Amino acid sequence: MATTRSTKSASVITSTVALKSAMAVSGLIMVGYLILHMYGNLKAFAGADAFNEYAHHLRTFGLPFLPYEGLLWVVRAVLVVAVILHAYAAITLWRRNRRAAGYVGNTRYQTKQHKRGRQRSYASFTMRWGGLTIALFIVFHILNLTTNTIHPGGSADTPYGKLHNSFDGQPVVWLVYVVAMIAVGFHLAHGFWSALTTLGQNFSPTRKASRWTGLAIALAAIITIGFLAPPTAILFFGLGD
Ligand code: HEM
Fold first, then answer.
1. Whose CA is nearest to atom 14 of ligand 1?
2. Is 193 close to ligand 1, i.e. is its CB under 6 Å away?
3. Domain that holds residue 60
4. What is the pTM of this model?
5. What does the pLDDT profile of the chain (241 residues) look like in tens digits?
6. Where on the phi/psi map is residue 110: left (φ > 0), alpha (ψ -120 to 50), or beta?
7. Can you tell me the distance from the alpha carbon of 241 to that of 239, in angstroms, rounded to the nearest whole number?
8. What is the count of structural domains for the chain?
9. For position 225, which CATH number holds?
10. Which atom of ligand 1 is nearest to the CA of 163?
């Protein structure tokens, strides 16, 4: 069958392999950001000045060659592209998977384990519902700690003030962050391993035998615990009081 040049190149860009690769690369970019962000947050243990100085340094980095917040805007732009690519690829692949798996209405073909034709694996659950939870969290989080539009413990002018006010005497806000960070942890434990597999780094016959399984779980645990340490210390141990 004759195919035009444009449909050919479009199908290469939106092929399942290309979308999986886009998910893997955008996911790894976000993992890099999370590690740096978590490291920055841990400066809260060094005191308000150290934390604010770090936040200030991020904004003045490269002056006068870069404008004020120049680096931050580059990071923001890369993150926005990564998030859009990641979500677009996830939704497209999910739809394609549903069609290929022969769903009728809301149910799939029946198997012994899935008698009603509904299949839900641990991975599909954490990736889809976890991904949605994280997306909602990011919106709340930016309104809370960047713009400070949502400030249950009172607004503040400094990055440390916003952080401290958000968790000091605020168990509900803390709980929201705990749920979100657990979702991040599960999402990473599967997603990091999956990204490396997509990029051809996994040569093991089973997931258990893969050397990346342990690393993915360790990374997820470090990021979850590392992020939750400052809010927990503020709420329960009076950090910054
Ligand atoms: C307990 C967990 C977290 C805490 C305490 C926290 C803390 C903060 C703080 C204090 C800021 C403002 C920084 C500043 O104004 O200089 C911020 C910004 C931000 N955080 Fe988090 N964060 C957490 C988890 C996350 C996670 C899991 C993500 C991504 C999935 C994330 C994404 C962002 C983004 C995108 C910004 C905006 C950066 C900007 O453009 O200015 N954070 N966070």
1. 159
2. no
3. 18-97+121-237
4. 0.90
5. 444 454 555 577 889 999 999 999 999 999 999 999 999 999 999 999 999 999 999 999 999 999 999 999 999 999 999 999 999 999 999 888 877 766 665 666 566 656 555 556 778 888 999 999 999 999 999 999 999 999 999 999 999 999 999 999 999 999 999 999 999 999 999 999 999 999 999 888 888 889 899 999 999 999 999 999 999 999 999 999 9
6. beta
7. 6
8. 1
9. 1.20.1300.10
10. 10
